[in-house]
Design goal:
three-stranded antiparallel β-sheet; D-Maltodextrin-Binding Protein, domain 2; single chain; about 35% helix; Arc Repressor Mutant, subunit A; alpha/beta; five-stranded mixed β-sheet; WH-like_DNA-bd_sf; about 290 residues
Length: about 290
């Protein structure tokens, strides 16, 4: 507190009083006080996260409007683990003529995507809906004042190793996949079937692996002869001698789309990203929903 008071050019009693007033106003305890100093409470740690976001936004505003030189292009996208979203991001950056930019692409959990777009940490979020999760996802989007914009629909596919005996089939069933480990993406403490990135999963799998990133997922597919369920879109990362995609027999359909905050206007870079995203999807043989 002493160091902070020096940084802020206020007396320590005045700073302590201001913190107490803030705690009373918010109805929380930010710090626990003891003879050795102070520590953050759980509520205080959460408060600090929001405070950092506010300061980051202030910094962006200052850099965007107070500098005389050309402004940096800004764009932040949160997405489920789809390679076509990365492919489009590369295309967007390659097509950008900006000499300076700050672009962020987050491959993360479904609930985090929704929260990041709601808090304006990201301009765009890429998620899917199905008959199973649509009601829950749309309810959450409405509560967060978010809008879902459909991009394209597709049938579920499985990603398996080319060495897998099933790779020679034109179509597989969940029954066919029973002998192999099932891979799924982690959905955090609020993990729920409704937030799962896999639109179809076995009723019971004796061997199940949860991962947090796409590279690990691909390595396990090859190294453990495992499988996961996703869209049928691949790219050069998948189109190798090691991994292939095969249609999964299912009544389910995936509706891929992007979400935005109804109170926000997209930046030019975000608009460019959406254009490139649609081009990539069409390049892979899917029809854009207008």
């Amino acid at each position: 507190m002493n160091e902070a008071s020096h940084e802020l050019y206020v007396s320590q009693p005045a700073l302590s009083s201001a913190v107490k007033e803030l705690e009373n106003e918010l109805g929380i305890q930010i710090f626990t006080r003891h003879s050795q100093g102070i520590d953050l409470t759980v509520e205080g740690a959460e408060f600090l996260t929001y405070a950092h976001q506010i300061l980051d936004q202030i910094g962006l505003l200052e850099r965007r409007y107070q500098q005389t030189k050309p402004r940096k292009q800004l764009c932040q996208v949160s997405t489920q683990h789809y390679m076509f979203t990365v492919e489009a991001f590369v295309e967007m950056i390659s097509s950008s003529n900006a000499k300076e930019y700050e672009f962020t692409l987050r491959e993360t959990q479904t609930r985090d995507i929704i929260d990041q777009v709601a808090s304006l940490r990201s301009e765009i979020g890429i998620i899917y809906q199905s008959t199973f999760n649509r009601r829950v996802i749309n309810k959450l989007l409405r509560e967060k004042h978010l809008v879902f914009h459909p991009l394209f629909s597709c049938k579920p596919h499985v990603f398996i190793a080319r060495s897998n005996p099933l790779a020679k089939l034109d179509e597989v069933t969940i029954k066919d996949l029973e002998p192999y480990p099932f891979l799924q993406y982690e959905q955090g403490n609020e993990g729920s079937f409704y937030y799962a990135e896999e639109p179809v999963w076995p009723d019971y799998s004796p061997r199940q692996i949860t991962v947090s990133d796409r590279a690990t997922m691909l390595n396990f597919i090859v190294g453990l002869n495992a499988y996961t369920v996703c869209t049928g879109i691949d790219n050069e990362d998948l189109n190798t001698e090691k991994i292939t995609t095969i249609p999964l027999r299912s009544d389910e359909t995936m509706l891929l789309g992007w979400i935005s905050n109804e109170h926000a206007k997209l930046s030019p870079a975000a608009v460019l990203y959406l254009d490139k995203l649609k081009e990539v999807i069409q390049h892979h043989g899917y029809t854009i929903i207008e």
